[in-house]
Amino acid sequence: MRGFAKRDWKGALADYSEAIRLHPGYADAYALRSTARKALDDKAGAWADIEEAIRLDPNNVMGFNNRGLLRYGDGNLAGAAADHDRAIRIDPTFVRAWRNRADARSYLGDKEGALADYTKALRLEPDHAEARIARAWIRRAVGDLEGALDDYLEAAKLPDAEGVPANLCITLFRMGRRDEAMRHCKQGQREAAAGDAKAFATEAGLLLLEGDVPGAEAALAEALRRDPRSAHALRLRSVVHARRGDLAAADRDIAAANEIAPWMERLAREAYGHALFR
What we know:
Elements: H1 2-5, H2 9-22, H3 27-39, H4 43-56, H5 61-73, H6 77-90, H7 95-107, H8 111-124, H9 129-141, H10 145-155, H11 164-174, H12 178-191, H13 198-209, H14 213-226, H15 231-243, H16 247-260, H17 264-272
């Protein structure tokens, strides 16, 4: 469907609604319309469609995979992992189910299980950029910095990889290669599209680790100018406020970051270390 391919969710919704009108028993169309409804913030409609897809076809791999994503979004990580597990049992070659189960396992604290799932996804599809970047993140989190670096460098060769310079920056910094790290941050900043705050926020995090509060503050100002809802930048700005003694402002930024992206706290601590945060 053209709307789905272009991430034109309203167009996709219309396309799949027409497909369902013509073929009311088409389970895949319900599963895919559920994705469009989720993207359009119609959670009730997304749930209704995904349950109908599974009712029509109890072995619908896309149905279980997409229901897992809905559960993941609701914070039901164990339920999400179970649905992705069911999708894998139905079709062990369905790459997205391996990748999505890995995400759920990661957030449940099962990093070894997540690493195994990302690796399986990459065996099936070596150029899967999201799985490559996610595996690099897990490798870095468990201390395999060389493995993480290899994955980020491979991801950098892929046309649809996002956020690689910022992640290379963190990884190289943690390897003690500070100058290279900062070069990748600057590269990411030069290449950043309008509204992309990642490389600026990342530089700020590393400057905070070095104790350069004014430098971090300047980088965060640019990050938040680009994206005022960057949870990454807001969480790091809370550290700046705390170091300047303004704990009320720090708490406001933490609350705002958690509201925008509740998972950012864990990701920030994994990226920069617990010692940076109070």
